[in-house]
Amino acid sequence: MTPDEIAALPYRPNVGIMLANKDGHVFMAQRLDRFSDAWQMPQGGIDEGEDAQVAALRELEEETGVPASAVTVEAETDGWIPYDLPHDLVPQLWKGRYRGQEQKWFLLRFHGDDALINIATEEPEFSTWKWMPASQIVDAIVPFKRGVYEAVLAEFQHRL
User: Fold this and answer.
1) Cα-trace Rg, the chain
2) Name one GO biological process term (predicted).
3) Domain holding 16: CATH number?
């Protein structure tokens, strides 16, 4: 695909989840499909007609095993935060239909025990996970998503 063809593609509607524990540390997980360190927070697509907050709670459980009953929704980003994929990844993801994702982020407070977290889900996405201080998050993210994580931290930092 040419850069002009990629630029003409839409963004995929998506939710991002900042899951924070009582100490203000954030759930971060290592992606299974990456060969180098590629940590991220849970995220996923919004089904057609699905409310973004409903999608966030669904994705949280699908990716981490954490049920909605173990969290409180504390905040959401004011708007949608887009990011573009590197051009070489566009044809490999989502059948080349999207240039990147446009995300609505939610801050969820985890009230459960770590034993509730189970990344060995039906369709696992992560190989390992940990609670990470907010100050370390941006450096752990793949470069093309750093701007998104900086924006999310700017909105939610005062609540951590």
Assistant:
1) 15
2) nucleoside phosphate metabolic process
3) 3.90.79.10
What's the 3-state SS for 62-131? HHHCCCHHHEEEEEECCCCEEEECCCCCHHHCHHHCCCEEEEEEEEEEECCCHHHCCCCCCCCCEEEEEE
Name the token pair of 49: 């007609």
Domains of the chain: total? 1
How many CB atoms lie under 10 A from the CB of residue 137? 21
Q: How many CA atoms lie within 13 A of 10 on its CB side?
A: 4
pLDDT single digits (tens) 121-143? 988 999 999 999 999 999 999 88
The total of other beta-carbon atoms located within 10 Å of residue 48's CB is: 6
Domain of 133 in residue numbering reads as 3-159
**Secondary structure class of 55 (helix, strand, coil):** helix
For residue 121, what are its two tokens?
């889900």
